[in-house]
Amino acid sequence: MTDIASTDDAQARETLQRLWKPGCDFLGSELAILGGAMSWVSERNLVSAISNAGGFGVIACGAMSPERLEEEIVATQALTKRPFGVNLITMHPDLDALVNVCLSHNVTHIVLAGGVPTGATIRRVRDGGARAIGFAPALALGRRLIKMGIEALIIEGSEAGGHVGPVSLNVLAQEILPHVTEVPVFVAGGLGRGDAIVSYLEQGAAGAQLGTLFAASQESIAHENFKVAFRRGNARDATVSVQLDERFPVIPVRGLANAATRHFMKHQAEMLRRFQAGDIEREAAQLEIEHFWSGALRRAVVEGDVDNGSLMAGQSVGMVKEIKPVADITSMLVEQAVAALKRREGRVHPPK
């Protein structure tokens, strides 16, 4: 019986390796698991821990200057000899300089996020010897990016934390995975278990990107208050910011509801009242709304102010039950994936 069990386990692990081999080969990692790029969180400690655990860490450049990014890359390389990537925001005013910093320090993969990258930027990345990864919120855009030279796609559902689109990963996967086979496609949004990852691998995904589980890991530099909020949170607590009036657009951001989210609603209502009363111009009111969250993520992540800060989290936050080391998280995901494959085999080919 033990021999049969061990054989089943070995076969399931071989199947998992075969399913995400395209992702592993593309990333140069043992596991096709990317760390989501989270501002103030995805820095040297967490990124190196994910790569050292067999996954693929990604530095969140965010609003960093080229000099600050260089410092973070060098510090990360001192903590891991394994490959990792850098996530760059395409709207950053110093994008070209940031790309050059990555290339000069031999960063293997560059994720171009926050907008549609230009063909020139993609060529600059590839000509410099790095792999170019882009986000595809729709099939048409995915095809366009591939024609422009993007070498891998990430499709992120609305279940994710932070800035999100309107479509769930479940639907995006059905729309995109059957039709994009030229490049690896990584799935993201609401993923917190290995069996869920397997389900997308079987649909054609090359791997998965996770953020929320890693944000609450031991190696994450996020404040303990931030991690405790994640551990206590449920899926329904991770809500998307609400827009009160279409004349004043609000970028949808998913995070744990707190005093700040309630205050934001009142702030919008006050700006709307002042605008309708003629006390403030429309543009000024829009700026007041947009500036409400300025520095809010840092307040929560770094300072631990979980009442007045921004608690960006995906709906997978309900699966954060304890604060674990990154290596334990990746091992858990693999074991869950293997167990799922063994269960599937038992259902498809039941013992006679």
TrEMBL record:
Q: Does the keyword Flavoprotein apply?
A: yes
Gene3D superfamilies per record = Aldolase class I
Which CDD domains does its entry note? NPD_like
Keyword flag Ligase:
no
Key words, A-Z: Flavoprotein, FMN, Oxidoreductase
What Pfam family is a match, any one?
Answer: NMO
State the name under which the record lists this protein.
Enoyl-ACP reductase
**Which organism is this entry from?**
Saccharibacter floricola DSM 15669
